[in-house]
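Quick note —
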Amino acid sequence: MPLGQSHNSHADSSRPPRRGVVGVIMEQGKLLVIRRSRLVRAPLKYCFPGGSIEPGETEQQAVLRELDEELALDVTVGKKLWHCTTSWGVDLAWWQVFRDPSQEPQIAPSEVDSYYWMTAAEMQVLRDLLPSNYEFLKLLAQQAITIDEAP
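Predicted structure written out below.
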C-alpha cells in the first residue's frame, strides 16, 4: 500500500469517505502544532490544525474556516502539500497556509487545548502525535514534501 494510504477495516463502504483538511504553517523553521481539546475526536492528541470539510465547501474554504475556528487566524492558502487517507478512513488534504506574523493564535477551548511552535524533529518524538502527522513528517524529512518560506 503506498505511503499515505492506509486501510481501514472499520469503514462503511456504502457511505462516501469523510473528507478533511490540514493547515500547515511554517515560520523560521518551526511548525504550528495544536494539542486537541478533551471534547473532540482523538482528545489531547497533537496534530496540525484542521478538520472536516463541510458540504459544499472546497478544500481551501475548509482550511480557512478551520484555522479561524480553532485558532482565530486569518490565513492565506498556499499550495497543496500532500494527500492521504488516514487509518480512520478520512480523505485528508494537506495545505500550506500563511499567517500575518503579528497575528497570534487564540485557541478555541472547545476544539484546542494548547498550541506550540515546534521543529519537525521535536514533533517526531511526541508520543501523542496523530499517525498521519508522523507520515507527513517522514515525507518532509525525505524532501518528498517541500514547504515554502512565508512570502
